[in-house]
């Protein structure tokens, strides 16, 4: 199914999600990020939300503006954050500081050359980290984004895209 068909299949009780999805996937509804960034963030978040039909529809939408390499970059953000968010959330939440001081030893080579520009990768990683609930990763990505002059609105837009995409995926999966 297409993204439009899935959006239209949302039940009446999720009318706000329909409206919000249209908004956050548009340039006007996501200030501070461009059309390519919107699509990369949305794809990474749809993958992180784990509802395969929705992720496939968002990938089709993303492919309208993203190259195959950029699609893979968005997928890489979802993949590496699936690992990092678990590890770093755990070391942050465990009440023993020793774990936070140990070398993680986890391979993250994709972060050096993700296939999309670094700030788009960071925006997608931030939004996926929000979905996965990793405060340590959110804080780290937000600092990098702000250091590289991504506006507060850009950061907020990435978070809104993640929130809406996740809510739509959860709702569709329950139908």
UniProtKB/TrEMBL annotation:
Residues covered by the Carboxymuconolactone decarboxylase-like domain: 98-170
Listed Pfam families: CMD
Reactions this protein catalyses: N(6)-[(R)-dihydrolipoyl]-L-lysyl-[lipoyl-carrier protein] + a hydroperoxide = N(6)-[(R)-lipoyl]-L-lysyl-[lipoyl-carrier protein] + an alcohol + H2O
Location of the active site: 134 (proton donor), 137 (cysteine sulfenic acid (-soh) intermediate)
Keywords, in A-Z order: Antioxidant, Disulfide bond, Oxidoreductase, Peroxidase, Redox-active center
InterPro entries given in the database record: AhpD, AhpD-like, AhpD_core, CMD-like
Tree of life domain: Bacteria
NCBIfam families in the record: ahpD (TIGR00777), ahpD_dom (TIGR00778)
Protein name: Alkyl hydroperoxide reductase AhpD
Species of origin: Lysobacter gummosus
